[in-house]
Design brief:
With 285 residues, this protein is of the alpha+beta class. It has a single domain (2-284), classed as Fumarylacetoacetase-like, C-terminal domain (Fumarylacetoacetate hydrolase, domain 2). The protein has helices at residues 2-13, 25-36, 50-68, 81-87, 140-145, 167-172, 192-200, 225-237; strands spanning 71-77, 93-98, 104-105, 108-110, 119-128, 147-156, 179-182, 186-187, 202-207, 212-217, 248-250, 258-259, 265-271, 278-284. Strands 1, 2, 3, 5, 6, 7, 8, 11 and 12 form a 9-stranded mixed beta sheet that branches. Helix 2 (25-36) crosses helix 3 (50-68).
Length: 285
């Protein structure tokens, strides 16, 4: 992923056209076709702004939902400052997750080549309890009042593009949302103690050889995982959209995106979230 991020910086340095240009239906359709057969695509050309990226994303989501099921929530990318700096975007970006995205459960087995540019990442889900969350602002306790589950989650993103990409292209390819593996939910408690647990938990990824692949505290995500929820509420509001009861939010990249090796088991553990550590695993073939 670090090589891809450096490539994205190089792409930014090359500059972009000074005019807005939403990709054509044909261009987006070609990326969708490539995604569906696990074939990498070149970056979109002429994307001058994040608005262009959102325009392309809307077209891509409309195509993919006929294959991957209806949209059931959102994911955030660029949730740490170093990655934001590399992409030249001073805030997170969002994509849409589908029914198929969350169709696999703890212990699932997946092909190592599940996507065009497959990677793996420690992540985290929360589920929206009711639409009162849209009025919660940035208050952590108010946000918790409108969530009912915190869920261990391994994301299996598809970086899609073959030549590196910038912020608009990341948005255009739906922030790489594709698959994930869902663990056993932890009931949310609307208390300061639970909010502190989210901030202080330690998230690690290990493989079946016992090798630790990544480690991060809850605060690695915008200072607190619930800050990611607050950002998402505000970001959707700018486009007149609202969160709805039952939607899932993928809010935390607790590791860099890592290449997927065949024949490996990856386990993500969350220490401090519950009375005992909780985890979720995936096996690749």
């Amino acid at each position: 992923m670090h090589r891809l991020l450096l490539a994205s910086v190089a792409a930014l340095c090359l500059g972009a056209p000074a005019f807005a240009a939403c990709p054509s239906e044909e261009a987006v359709g070609q990326v969708a076709d490539n995604l569906l057969v696990n074939r990498p695509s070149p970056p979109f050309t002429g994307l001058a702004s994040l608005e262009d990226g959102f325009c392309a994303q809307d077209k891509l989501v409309r195509i993919l939902q006929s294959h991957w099921g209806r949209p059931i929530g959102y994911k955030l990318g660029l949730t740490s400052q170093p990655v934001q700096q590399r992409f030249g975007v001073p805030h997170p970006v969002r994509g849409v997750i589908f029914e198929r995205t969350l169709s696999m459960r703890d212990g699932a087995e997946v092909p190592a080549r599940f996507g065009a540019v497959p990677v793996i990442e420690s992540d985290f889900l929360v589920r929206v309890k009711d639409d009162g969350i849209n009025n919660a602002g940035r208050d952590h306790l108010k946000i918790l009042q409108h969530l009912d589950q915190a869920i261990p989650y391994i994301e299996l993103p598809d970086l899609v593009l073959s030549g590196g990409f910038d912020g608009p292209n990341l948005l255009a390819v739906n922030v790489g949302a594709r698959l994930g593996v869902v663990g056993t939910p932890v009931p949310v408690q609307a208390t300061q103690e639970f909010a502190d647990r989210l901030a202080n938990m330690v998230v690690t990824m290990v493989d079946d050889r016992g090798q630790e692949r990544a480690r991060a505290p809850g605060t690695a995500v915008l200072g607190h995982p619930l800050n990611a929820v607050a950002f998402l509420i505000e970001d959707l509001g700018k486009q007149g959209k609202r969160l709805e009861a039952g939607q899932y939010l993928s809010i935390a990249g607790f590791s860099p995106t890592l290449p997927v090796e065949p024949g490996r088991t990856y386990t993500v553990r969350y220490e401090g979230l519950a009375a005992q550590p909780v985890s979720v695993s995936v096996r690749t073939r």
